[in-house]
Design brief:
The structure is a single chain. By secondary structure, the protein is mainly alpha-helical. Helices cover 76% and strands 0% of the residues. The chain contains 13 helices and no strands. It has helices at residues 2-13, 28-45, 50-74, 81-104, 109-130, 137-147, 150-159, 164-184, 195-213, 219-223, 226-237, 239-244, 247-269. Helix 2 (28-45) runs parallel beside helix 13 (247-269), helix 3 packs parallel to helix 5 and helix 5 (109-130) runs antiparallel to helix 7 (150-159).
């Protein structure tokens, strides 16, 4: 009887938002990743056009569409109009902008390819949510890779094509920001082992070095990855503090290192007269 009374009281005490109230992703760190990746892409393009602005809106809406979709999938057999409506609105706006930009420049198939890759990543994330594996390392890596697609998306919308170096920039962004997966997991007892993080950073360093060797990254752009190696080294050195400090301090560490990485990478990509 007590349980029934408590459950009956919950709907009355919790006011559910109406369907017309927009859903907004609470993943604040992802906003930083999305924006900084996008700006590195515009730095590589070395210009900002109306198409750049439109594709920024496209990337933002595509990112926002994932949140209500994930919430709806978590409902299992219950349909929530608010989640369905806003997943459709965000996804519809993103899709409409992408198709319109392609209609303006039908030769730019790379734009559709990048958007298609982002859609596939969203579907994979949806499946992982259904299987309750959204926090699995492989899914988080895919998610970071999808968000970092904003770099080549900004470039191709601005310039009209995709090049090897801009794809190298996408890989660099993905590897840099994905480091947070392994550092944040150190704060949890079940995932506190250093081995996955050490292996990831060693492999990532090798990939960045390879991209530099094949001239997909300039020496300075590749060197920007050193920021994350220093961050990881400091976290390992101060592991006890990192594991017990407030999450706000963790966010400050991640944001500060991200801004430093962006500053180095962006300055290495801009033309000399703008540096």
């Amino acid at each position: 009887m007590t349980t029934t009374s408590t459950n009956a009281a919950k709907p009355a005490g919790r006011k559910q938002k109406q369907w017309y109230h927009p859903t907004v992703s609470p993943e604040h760190g992802a906003y930083v990743v999305l924006l900084l990746s996008f700006l590195t892409g515009t730095a590589a393009a070395q210009q900002w056009t109306w198409a750049t602005t439109l594709v920024l809106v496209c990337a933002y809406c595509g990112f926002q569409a994932e949140h209500p979709l994930g919430l709806q999938i978590k409902q299992r057999r219950s349909w929530k109009p608010r989640f369905l409506v806003w997943a459709g609105v965000y996804g519809g706006v993103a899709g409409a902008i992408a198709l319109w930009l392609f209609w303006q420049h039908p030769e730019n198939w790379s734009l559709l390819a990048i958007c298609g890759a982002a859609v596939v990543a969203t579907l994979v994330d949806g499946v992982s949510v259904w299987q309750r594996q959204q926090r699995a390392i492989w899914n988080e890596l895919i998610t970071f890779a999808a968000v970092c697609l904003s770099a080549p998306l900004a470039y191709t919308a601005t310039v009209g094509m995709v090049t090897g170096p801009v794809m190298g920039l996408w890989v660099l962004n993905t590897l840099f920001f994905s480091s947070a997966i392994f550092t944040v997991k150190l704060r949890k007892i079940k995932t506190s082992s250093l081995v996955p993080g050490v292996v990831f950073h060693a492999v990532a360093t090798g990939i960045v070095a390879l991209l530099w060797q094949v001239h997909w990254l300039s020496p300075i752009t590749a060197a920007a990855f050193g920021v994350v190696l220093v961050k990881f080294g400091v976290i390992v050195w101060q592991k006890d503090w990192y594991c017990h400090t407030k999450i706000q301090h963790v966010a400050q560490v991640e944001t500060g290192s991200s801004l430093l990485f962006f500053a180095i990478a962006a300055l290495s990509l801009l033309p000399p007269h703008l540096n």
